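Side project, low priority. Logging it here so it doesn't get lost.
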Amino acid sequence: MVEIRPFKALTYDWDEVDGDPASVTAPPYDVLTAEEVERLKKTSLHNVTRLTLPDASPGKGEASKYTEAAKTLRRWMKEGVLTQTKDPSLYVYHETHTEGGARKTVRGFFSLLRLDPEYKEVRPHERTHKGPIEDRLKLLGATRMDLEPIQFLYTDSEGFVQRTLEAEIVDADPIVDFTDPSGVRHELWAVDDADTLQAVQAFFDGRNVYIADGHHRYATACHYAREARDGGPIDGTLPYDHKLSLFVSRDDPGIAVHPTHRLLSDLPAPAEGRRALQERFKTEPVTVGSDSRARAVALRDICEGVDVDTVHRFVFYWGDGEADILTLPHAEVPKAEMGDRSDAWKALDVSVLHHVVLPKTLGVDQDNAGEHLRYTRVDEEAVRWVDEGRHQCSIIMNATPLSAVTAVADHGEHMPQKSTYFQPKAQSGLLFSPIG
């Protein structure tokens, strides 16, 4: 059973802290570069990255960063930088962002979610790795605070949940309302009406939810709860049995999934690989643009110019404006070569690329991918870094359809690495949840 729970949140005292809420909030820890973290910390002594990505204490080693985060958190609480909301609530959240040249709003709500370590009702679509979990586990143990939410999708084609919550905020002022440096507007309201909370909780009984963003944070929470209970069952009676979560309907028109492009390096014979690609898949060579920016726009338009429900398309960029367009109808994919997987998994662009195209042409497979593959979500970077000689080739990708994410998850399967990138991300620093 999916169990969501209203909660008293710890949050910034928005009337007191540094004037602009954008100065203390930040994107999730795992999408920030080192340069971005440094800039955010300079914007405010109270920026949330001082908790989520703390600095080590001088002369005390890397491990001291976790205790430094705990000290900072306790100091902020003592100084009144952080304060607790009065009543258990669900928190309506609007993110208004620009997508395809138009302003769109994603509407969701924050809640606690009872952990499901067996992944029966909680459906992931990505694998997790030991390193990130160990890092977040040390931070969680030191601070005893759930610092960042994960994002879930759920099915609600009639919009019952969000409509019910939105009715409670029609004439209400938001707790906080600001626009971050990337142009995303964030608005947050608390809803504590008992009948409304009960109706939303009842809706989720017997349903599944899908992890959109935050697989490692969810795995960390499960690991922490099991460890704290000495392996006993997670029955929902203790604070660490729950995870701070943002829920958005998969039918919300504002949500977007962006592609992650592939970058190839250290290929032993790139020219031979390109010939093999051209011969095996009958690619179409093109020459585009006069500079990296113009080339990126042209290649993006080429990649998107197909019906992704029937055709796979990849654009291999080799530098100096030269590219090969690979167009492969779904019906021509050698699915027998892709192992014992569901049709939903075999229909993914990323699955076809990594299990059919790359191994048979450029020699990049599951065993050596770490040696040759890097990633970027920025079209221009995918082109410019090849033009500059930092990589031998880039592969411009289309986005994974949202329906494919839930279809693969429902089969209990994991997508290849870097298959999805949901936008916009939930801003860190809006709400925290104590775990005891």
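Brief comment: The first helix runs from residue 34 to 43.
Revisit when time allows.
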